[in-house]
Amino acid sequence: MKKLVIFDFDGTIADSKKLYVEIIRTSLLKALFLYPKSRIVKALGPKLNATLQNLNIAPKLRKKLSKEINSWITEKAASLKVCPYAAQTLKKLKLRKQKMWHKTLMLDWLPIIAT
């Protein structure tokens, strides 16, 4: 069986930006930082650490928040909807019994379940 790796640059397969922003905002609120969603969106970087750095979060706290945020994102990733234009291709690959893994810019590898 051929292996397939798909890199998702937000919006290719699943639009995860809203999820990231909401979870980052919630985590920051728990740490008593109040940022509007628009500020978090402007701070988004290629990695979570860069995003937190762009928000001027201290290095020690960034490490703690990163763990928490990544844990919540991994938990909630299954709730992401596949972008409509990608769903048909993923279904075809699933019919071929192709195993797929999804790589986002901030998450570790997650299995893709084509619905």
Question: TL;DR?
Answer:
The chain has 115 residues and is mainly α.
- Structural domain tally: 2
Uncertain regions spanning at least 5 consecutive residues: 105-115
Summarize the main sheet. Answer: 3 strands, mixed
What is the chain-wise order of helices and strands? EHHHHHEE
The pLDDT mean sits at 77
Q: End-to-end span in angstroms? A: 21 Å
Q: Which sequence of strands runs across the widest sheet?
A: 1-2-3
β-strand amount: 5-15%
The total of helices stands at: 5
Shape: elongated
Q: Using only CA atoms, what is the Rg?
A: 16 Å
Protein structure class: mainly alpha
Helix fraction, binned, reads 40-55%
Secondary structure tally: strands:
3
Descriptive account of the structure:
With about 120 residues, this protein is mainly alpha-helical. It folds into 2 domains: about 50 residues, no CATH class; about 60 residues. About 50% of the residues lie in helices and about 10% in strands. The chain is built from 5 helices and 3 strands, in the order E-H-H-H-H-H-E-E. The chain has a 3-stranded mixed sheet, with no helix packed on it. Strand 2 and strand 3 form a beta hairpin. Helix 1 packs across helix 4. The longest helix is centred in the middle third of the chain and has 18 residues. The two termini are about 20 Å apart. The C terminus is likely disordered.
